[in-house]
Amino acid sequence: MQPATNKTTKGPELSCARAPLTLKTQVMNEQGEWQEQALACERPLTLYLDKRELVTLMTLGEDPEALVLGYLRNQGLVEQLEDILAIQVDWEVEAAAIRTARTAENLEEILSQRTVTTGCGQGTVFGNQMARLEQAELPQWQLKQSQVYKLLQALNDYNATYRNAGAVHGCAVCTAEGEVLAFCEDIGRHNAVDTLAGRLWLEGLNPEQAIFYTTGRLTSEMVMKTAQMGISVLLSRSGATQMGLEIARKLDILMLARAKGKHFQVFSADQRLELDAPPPLRPGDRK
User: Based on the domain organization, do 208 and 122 belong to the same domain?
Assistant: First the structure.
């Protein structure tokens, strides 16, 4: 069955290929009892850029067209939205066909410099990305501690697939006021951030004071992809890697990690965080 299509008012012709996010299976618990359990789906999606096989992504399949779009943008393979004529996803053949008006002139060179990174989702980073980011000027605005707490509270209403089945990462683009502009879950955090990048690109959203939230760890690629979206505040409930921290410091990104409840750790650009709502000290805590 061919997927339905949706021609956006501005931008490429997109399919609307949706797939189930979870399925049920029978599992045995520690008492020897059988019970029903939801599993997060995982499916391959091979990208063909102008009939050339590019990469295969393992994805949940929540919003595959936005995933493809964000992936192309974050890897520097397409610079302008109008350069993409169509993205057609067909789950029967597990493929996404991308037609463009033009691709990067140095496509061969870019592909030859691809680096496969560690972690779930097997993210990729193409050469010369840091050189481009170092030329960009990210917004340097002040975030309040109370705004972090408000945002973490608002995010409790999301992560539906994780609560149902586990085994996925969630990412969100939010405002300083605690509004969640876009949220996505996927097997790999790299896919989730690419999907959000694609959605923002399609909708023309470029908030000046945006926060990127992820349930996953802050690796070099996650920091770089956040910066490519023009976002300079990064919030995670997990930890950070050494290279992720180095890049965040170089780009003056306010990085907060291990954020759960009222607790978090500031890894970089601490001068951009106003501590206006410190929680009371617990017994045994040192001032």
Answer: no
C-alpha radius of gyration, the chain, whole number: 20
| Single pTM value for the model | 0.81
141 close to 77: Cβ distance less than 8 angstroms: no
What is the C-alpha to C-alpha distance for residues 269 and 247, in angstroms, rounded to an integer?
Answer: 12
In single-letter form, the type of residue at position 127 comes to G
pLDDT the model gives residue 9: 46
- What is the model's pLDDT at position 5? 46
62 closest CA partner among 210, 196, 224: 196
Instruction: Evaluate if residue 234 carries a pLDDT over 60.
Output: yes
Residues 119 and 155 grouped into a single domain: no
Residue range 58-117, pLDDT digits in tens? 898 999 999 999 999 988 888 889 999 999 999 999 999 999 987 666 666 666 655 555
41 assigned to active site: no
Same-domain check for residues 91 and 160:
no
Active-site residue among 120, 171, 174, 184? Answer: 120
Q: Alpha-carbon distance 145 to 273, whole Å? A: 7
The pair of three-digit structure tokens given for residue 14, joined into one six-digit string: 């997109």
Whether 10 has a pLDDT exceeding 60, the answer reads yes
Of the three residues 128, 156, 187, the one that is the final residue of a domain is 128
What letters, b where the CB count within 10 A reaches 16 and e where it falls short, cover 121-157? bebbbbeebeeebeeeebeeeebebebbbbbbebbee
